[in-house]
Amino acid sequence: MSFTKRQFVAAALALLPLAQAQQPATTDPGNPSLKTYKCSKSGGCVAQDTAIALDWNYHWIHTVNGYESCTTSSGVNTTLCPDAATCSKNCVIEPANYTSSGVSTSGDALTMHQYVKSNGVYGNASPRVYLLGSDGDYVLMQLLGQELTFDVDMSTLPCGENGALYLSEMSGSGGRNEYNKGGAAYGSGYCDAQCPSELWKNGTLVPGGSPYCCNEMDILEGNSRANAYTPHPCSADNCDKGGCGFNPYAQGKTNYWGPGGTVDTSKPFTITTQFITDDGTQTGTLKEIRRQYIQNGQVIANAKSSAGIDSITEPWCESVDSAATTFGGLTTMGKALGRGMVLIFSIWNDASGYMNWLDSGSNGPCSSTEGNPSNIISQDPDTHVVFSNIRWGDIGSTFNAPGGSGSTTTTTAAITTTTKATTTTKTSSTTTTAGGATQTQWGQCGGQSWTGPTACVAGTTCKVQNPYYSQCL
Ligand SMILES: *[C@@H]1O[C@H](CO)[C@@H](O)[C@H](O)[C@H]1NC(C)=O
Ligand SMILES: *[C@@H]1O[C@H](CO)[C@@H](O)[C@H](O)[C@H]1NC(C)=O
Ligand SMILES: *[C@@H]1O[C@H](CO)[C@@H](O)[C@H](O)[C@H]1NC(C)=O
């Protein structure tokens, strides 16, 4: 993610500032609720009382007793905000206006628009929001040895747009402190693996801005024409900025993802991403980041390249990404996933590179120029993404697994629908091939409830990684 744009939404004041020397201007940060589901093998899926927080930089920060902005187009007003303590005396932060930022929620669905119409004219909104728990801190999702599933509608995202759902290892409180009592509820503390320059680094004002790197796991960066999922592990002050992403088109599967494709992006579908450890536990070493889709009640295995690549594994990362080992590869990514990461949703486009890294050249069918935001705003001003039915937990618990196990005891209509829709499918997230077939290098060849091939392609042998997983190596 190289999204550093700042937008200061000049919303009308709902309430006058109440307190001095404290940053929030009002007591209610106004976070829209977004229901999510936590799932387990034993208990099914349970609705969570979660909400969203729009990023800090989309909030209006102004003088305590007036309406003068404490921020400028390039940073902070250094007279009002020479340091964190003085800034907190002089300035307050307003709740965000989610409507004018292109964000709305309904039940378990989140809709985000790139552009918002105001007085008949479309303006750039490009929102970024974080998942907030009922305690006012971010939800720290611990996904090591677990899986994350959600539904997405990307049908209106053209070339050059990026509807993103990803995780960063932000502080759970958003870096809340005595000068920033709002913290996570006000969307503070953003970091990612591109080490963006942050004015409020981990919630504390640094007037000139300072790079803030942290582990990032991109679950989905995509539009209706292309997509990728990518781990970005970090050291203390640098990251694997490129990462070893998996993009079906770049693997030669040019008809896999798109309108009318194997995954038909003209309609909504479900994405499951599994973080498989070497011993099948939530404390093991991350060995593989596996992917599957569900559409029209059918499980769609991830695309497989002619070389047999259909998943992100350490050997594959090391072969395609020279920086992978420098930052500890999947092992580092797994540790961050084990500690807990913040779930982030965004929609953005890219005025300098037109998102070519995602959807053009060898990465997708888009021309090198059609992702220019000036094309998008003139041709697709209503472009938006809808994320819904977000659920996470034990492997196999967030969608229906073989033989009717899995989320059969779910508590919500939405999940029940998904369960029903998938009861006819035979396998969970596996690299299935016809019976008697030979598995390719890196592919799965055994493990508990594995029904796929157990023979490996010549030159490789089936090695037991853990009770749940054997691999052709
Ligand atoms: C910064 O704030 C001071 C004090 O309110 C004001 O006089 C000055 O014009 C502001 N500077 C900018 C660049 O907005
Ligand atoms: C938020 O923005 C919308 C649309 O731009 C506007 O109609 C509304 O009055 C704003 N709400 C507040 C509380 O300022
Ligand atoms: C961020 O701030 C929180 C709260 O002050 C603190 O506990 C945490 O260690 C900080 N994280 C980093 C990486 O500085």
Automatic annotation (TrEMBL):
GO terms for cellular component: extracellular region. It comes from the Eukaryota. One of its GO terms (biological process) is cellulose catabolic process. Keywords: Carbohydrate metabolism, Cellulose degradation, Disulfide bond, Glycoprotein, Glycosidase, Hydrolase, Polysaccharide degradation, Signal. Transmembrane segments: none annotated. GO terms for molecular function: cellulase activity; cellulose binding. Residues 437-473 form the CBM1 domain. Its EC number is 3.2.1.-. Gene3D superfamilies: Glycoside hydrolase, family 7, domain (2.70.100.10). SUPFAM superfamilies: Cellulose-binding domain, Concanavalin A-like lectins/glucanases. Residues 1-21 form the signal peptide. It catalyses: Endohydrolysis of (1->4)-beta-D-glucosidic linkages in cellulose, lichenin and cereal beta-D-glucans. The keyword Hydrolase applies. It holds the Pfam family Glyco_hydro_7. It is an enzyme of class 3 (hydrolase). PANTHER family: 1,4-BETA-D-GLUCAN CELLOBIOHYDROLASE B, ENDO-BETA-1,4-GLUCANASE CELB. Belongs to the glycosyl hydrolase 7 (cellulase C) family. Has endoglucanase activity on substrates containing beta-1,4 glycosidic bonds, like in carboxymethylcellulose (CMC), hydroxyethylcellulose (HEC) and beta-glucan. Involved in the degradation of complex natural cellulosic substrates. This is Glucanase. The lineage of its organism: Eukaryota, Fungi, Dikarya, Ascomycota, Pezizomycotina.
